[in-house]
């Protein structure tokens, strides 16, 4: 009986350890899910902020154009309509925000990207830049946007430009050129570490 009791106690201890390990794993998973949920909420709020800001700017712009039209300031109206300044401003702001948000998700992206390139082929950014066009192409790829046409629309360039950048980067890869974009997809976000 003592031997059977000792065996049962040993089995209970083993099962208790196993249960503790499972509980620890479950807690880790719950913490990760909580963190992911917070990140999603943050970026959804960021998205709505961008949308509302853009709508507000468009309303102001529409009001300016309306005033020019009703006051018959046709030369000023035509000048405003021909100008690309507003669009250029908005694109610059959009890219800056995209860069900030993306690097918030993938803070080591630039270093990890450069680690996949041959020595001397790494991308060196301007001091005030977070990403450049080449890195944005791969940032979009990392986010799952693989269609070169969609990438070209976002970056306001031709599909052939996107294709050329992608080809050029694959040729600079330290890894197998055919695996380069698969390696980009393995770059971890803050939640995946």
Overview of the structural elements:
The protein is an all-alpha fold and 193 residues long. Helix content is 74%, strand content 0%. The chain is built from eight helices and no strands. The chain has helices at residues 2-70, 74-82, 85-105, 109-115, 133-142, 148-155, 159-171, 180-185. The radius of gyration is 26 Å and the shape is elongated.
Nutshell version of this structure?
The protein has 193 residues and is mainly alpha-helical. The chain has helices at residues 2-70, 74-82, 85-105, 109-115, 133-142, 148-155, 159-171, 180-185. Helix 1 (2-70) runs antiparallel to helix 3 (85-105) and helix 6 (148-155) crosses helix 7 (159-171).
What labels describe this entry?
193 residues, mainly alpha
Amino-to-carboxy terminus distance: 50 Å
Structural category: mainly alpha
Strand content: under 5%
Number of strands: 0
Q: Determine the number of helices (DSSP H or I, runs of at least 4 residues).
A: 8
Write the layout of secondary structure elements.
Elements: H1 2-70, H2 74-82, H3 85-105, H4 109-115, H5 133-142, H6 148-155, H7 159-171, H8 180-185
Helix pairs in contact: 1-3, 6-7
